[in-house]
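I'd like us to work through together how a protein chain folds, taking it slowly. To get us started, please write out a protein record for me. Go ahead whenever you are ready, and we will take it from there:
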Amino acid sequence: MRATHKANLFILLSLLIAVAAIAVPSYLYYQWEQNHFKSDKYFELNSIAELKVKQIADWRKERHSDINYLFNHPFIPELLASAQQSKTFSLAKRQLFNIMLPMYKNQRYQSIQVFDARGERLFAIPDFAETHYLEIKKVFEETKKAGRPVVSDLQMHEDQIVMYLASAFLNSNNSVIGYIVLYINPFIELYPLIQYWPVLSHTSECLLVEREGNNVLCLNELRHKTGAALNLRLPISDERSPVAMAVRGIEGVVEGIDYRSVEVLAAIKKIPHSPWFIVVKIDKE
């Protein structure tokens, strides 16, 4: 009996050693593989975030260049003054129209509109374009006070999201001659730029956000939530929210929980010369 018991113990011990010999290396390999995969995802997310920052920063720079081109154009102040002397589509209006038409034709602007010194519209490209007068008057005051072109933030107007580039034009007495406003529809170029993901993924998503009081405001449409742009607000106090981390000044790759209460890996970057942050994320699972 004693010999049989010893034999059984020996067999059991041998089996445990054999299982351990297989399980321990397998577990260590699994851990290494998991860490390696996570490291690859960190690198991928960070690379995509850097790409998005460059694309959005370049997009903003190009828009600034357009309004600055008009602001510094040597003939526009004189043409604006002449255009206001006639109610018909005068030669001056035609010349202004021809200066700005190429900007409209590149399909980056919803409309381009020209106003007199009182803020009354002289003409628009296209001529049927809507004018958001309440918001535009605020932009007029801002660019007049600044003495240079201004860029508005994304804002909601009657269920439509718009953004403005505006410049006041002054005469030699520093009196306003008129204004030019470029209307941006973010669905034309900005949102597709943000939402494009360079590799195949079923859970990936990019969020453009900014701080709004004690909340984080989502600026773009999302893959997993319809109608999120300028509607989705999340508390800054949420310690595990990547978008809350962004507006609190945290950058880099983090783990957290997104607006769906799903665990995610996320890369956070600040968009230079803007109040915006980009959060590039993918489900951790």
About this structure: The radius of gyration is 29 Å. The longest strand covers residues 160-170.
